[in-house]
Design brief:
By secondary structure, the chain is α/β, with parallel strands linked by helices. The chain is 42% helix and 14% strand. The chain folds into two domains: 162 residues, Leucine-rich Repeat Variant; 280 residues, Rossmann fold, CATH 3.40.50.150. Helix 6 packs parallel to helix 8, helix 7 packs antiparallel against helix 8 and helix 12 packs across helix 13.
């Protein structure tokens, strides 16, 4: 039987369809028929679905329940409730609750409320979805509000957004704006001192690569814990100065501290994975991980010894990847809300044209700089800027290095704000981006000491 034949039969003689929905039929016939039924007529008799709800094959039971739900007939409420409680398959149980919710019938409210205590969070979420239809009902509101203390984080987020979120504004006129005195500015000084005087929600995007833990001559820390605490303090301030729902992208990788002698082993630190819990705790929401893949020749070979002796346990792969961990400042607003804050012209001019990266591996050659030993490739910066910011946004790099990100920002008509503690690298940024003003003569590049920057902040309070 074809899909067209099924469509013809379902709109005609139910008895004819019943032959194909007989529980004794083979699984293939039952599955095809149930799957291709589509939208059902209002007067459709669902009696042939009932026996299939007890079929030994899970996918048959699932489709039978789904089709019962299409009928939106309250006479099936008890049947669906029993399935939601007793079926051995959690998928079938979820579909039963979903079918009850889709009926939009007030008689379903007590069943859905009982389902809020189910141990399966997905069943609870289906019940919430069904109950939100009756959001004017005081009993429904009362029962749903209790879930703010539910152990599941997704359930808590849904309830918080529905009943405890005070930021209901659909438009924020300040979202696209940023302080003029931060535009195209580089500050030479301690990043924490600088950030503490930057106003709340000033920037749209941060992209940075923090100093490697004791792996370069420009980053010395007494301990790994001290290093992580420093980063935590910095990124907490970054969170404060980031606008609602906007992005923070952290480029890191595990690093190796060489061994002291042949009698000692080297130490490998999983920086991106150790920083991640801190970021979640302070209010960043994890969105994606992008793997930056470099050519093999650009990395130090760790396999030479193993290739010779081939002894198990001694294998060490050459590291040719770094992580771009993508985070968003936690909000109940969707991405669309952020986009709607911009005018039509800005959105059109900011669209990503040409080929786009469809997978989370980016093959980009590293860049070498005469002054800085670990610089961003320009291509890496350009991709991040295109995917995560709009024209005229203010973008930030707390560890400015040689200034590549700032230079890339200007080339794409974004404003930059950068901090750098090293005098040597501060001078390199000046040399790299100079006084160029590529798209707006109103905000030429400026370079300040911390004291000079502090005076500017005070003058603009």
């Amino acid at each position: 039987m074809t899909k067209a034949e099924i469509s013809e039969i379902k709109n005609g003689n139910n008895g004819e369809l019943g032959k194909y929905l007989n529980p004794t039929n083979d699984t293939k016939t039952l599955f095809f028929t149930l799957d291709k039924l589509g939208r059902l007529p209002e007067n459709f008799d669902g009696k042939y679905f009932i026996p299939l709800c007890n079929h030994p094959i899970e996918k048959i039971r699932l489709l039978a329940v789904k089709n019962i739900g299409k009928l939106c007939d309250e006479k099936y409420l008890n049947q669906l409730e029993n399935i939601s409680i007793s079926d051995e398959s959690t998928m079938v149980r979820r579909e039963a609750i979903s079918s009850i919710g889709r009926m939009r019938n007030k008689k379903a409210i007590p069943i859905l409320i009982k389902s809020l205590k189910d141990p399966d969070p997905k069943i609870v979420l289906q019940a919430i979805r069904g109950l939100l239809v009756f959001n004017e009902d005081e009993m429904v509101i009362s029962e749903l509000k209790k879930l703010i203390d539910h152990p599941n984080e997704v359930i808590k987020n849904v309830i918080e957004k529905e009943y405890f979120d005070e930021s209901k504004s659909e438009y924020n006129g300040d979202h696209c704006k940023s302080p003029n005195y931060l535009k195209n500015v580089v500050v030479n000084g301690d990043v924490l001192e600088i950030l503490k005087i930057v106003p709340n929600e000033s920037i749209h995007l941060t992209f940075t690569s923090p100093p490697y833990y004791n792996a370069r001559d420009y980053s010395i820390y007494q301990s790994y814990d001290e290093y992580l605490e420093f980063l935590r303090d910095v990124f907490k301030e970054v969170h404060r100065i980031t606008k609602e729902g906007r992005f923070f992208i952290l480029n890191t990788s595990p690093i190796i501290i060489p061994r002291v002698s042949r009698q000692h082993s080297s130490k490998r630190y999983p920086i991106p994975f150790d920083i991640h819990p801190f970021l979640i705790e302070m209010g960043w929401e994890f969105i994606d991980d992008i793997v930056w893949v470099k050519p093999e020749f650009s990395a130090k070979d760790r396999n030479s010894s193993f290739r010779q002796h081939r002894k198990p346990l001694a294998y060490k792969p050459t590291a040719v990847t770094e992580y771009l961990m993508v985070y968003r400042k936690k909000t109940h607003k969707l991405i669309d809300w952020n986009i709607r804050q911009y005018d039509y012209k800005t959105v059109q001019e900011s669209k990503v044209l040409g080929e786009v990266d469809q997978i989370n591996t980016w093959n980009i050659d590293p860049t070498f700089d005469k002054t800085h030993t670990a610089v961003f490739p320009m291509e890496l910066c350009l991709r991040v800027l295109k995917y995560y910011s709009f024209k005229n946004d203010l973008v930030f790099d707390p560890f400015g290095g040689s200034g590549t990100f700032s230079k890339a920002a200007q080339s794409l008509n974004r404003y930059f704000f950068t901090t750098e503690i090293s005098n040597k690298y501060f001078e390199r940024i000046k040399e790299n981006i100079g006084q160029n003003v590529l798209f707006n003569t109103e905000f030429p590049n400026k370079y300040f000491s911390f004291q000079e920057f502090y005076k500017i902040i005070e003058a603009n309070k």
